[in-house]
């Protein structure tokens, strides 16, 4: 199983390190995680642009019941986004559609 092998590699990477070396490794991993989270955050805006109603004229009009509609997922003044965009984005980052919407 892939997940198990990752834990084995991480365990092997820190096994035998002293306290300072372990903390150094954790610091590097945390910085990498923070950088990746920042990249994901920055990617949200262009992803939302790709799901703006003006970007997909084939989806214009009232549509049928159950079809996605443009919604304002953010606060006042945020642009409209097709409502299923969050359901696409959230799972790709290992989160729920609700977390994708919040992002």
Descriptive report:
The mean pLDDT is 85. The longest helix is centred in the middle third of the chain and has 32 residues, at 19-50. A two-stranded antiparallel ribbon has the order 1-2. The protein has helices spanning 2-14, 19-50, 85-92, 97-102; strands spanning 70-71, 81-82. The protein contains 4 helices and 2 strands. It is elongated and about 65 Å long. It is mainly α.
What layout of secondary structure does this protein have?
Elements: H1 2-14, H2 19-50, E1 70-71, E2 81-82, H3 85-92, H4 97-102
Antiparallel strand pairs: 1-2
Which terms summarize this structure?
single chain, 103 residues, mainly alpha, two-stranded antiparallel ribbon, 2 strands, 4% strand
Relative helix content: 55-70%
Strand order of the largest sheet: 1-2
Average pLDDT figure = 85
Query: What is the β-strand count?
Result: 2
Estimated share of beta-strand residues: under 5%
Determine the structural class based on helices, strands and strand pairing. Answer: mainly alpha
Distance between the termini: 31 Å
Radius of gyration: 20 Å
The count of helical stretches stands at: 4
- Note the overall shape: elongated
Order of helix and strand elements from N to C terminus:
HHEEHH
Summarize the biggest pleated sheet.
2 strands, antiparallel
**Uncertain residue segments:** none
Q: In a few lines, what is going on in this structure?
A:
With 103 residues, the protein is mainly alpha-helical. It contains 4 helices and 2 strands.
């Amino acid at each position: 199983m892939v997940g198990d092998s990752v834990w084995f590699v991480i365990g092997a990477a820190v096994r035998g390190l002293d306290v300072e070396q372990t903390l150094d490794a954790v610091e590097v991993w945390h910085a990498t995680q923070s950088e990746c989270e920042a990249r994901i955050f920055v990617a949200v805006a262009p992803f939302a642009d790709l799901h703006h109603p003006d970007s997909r004229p084939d989806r214009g009009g009232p549509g049928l019941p159950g079809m996605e509609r443009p919604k304002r997922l953010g606060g006042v003044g945020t642009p409209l986004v097709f409502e299923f965009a969050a359901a696409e984005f959230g799972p790709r980052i290992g989160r729920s559609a609700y977390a994708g919407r919040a992002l």
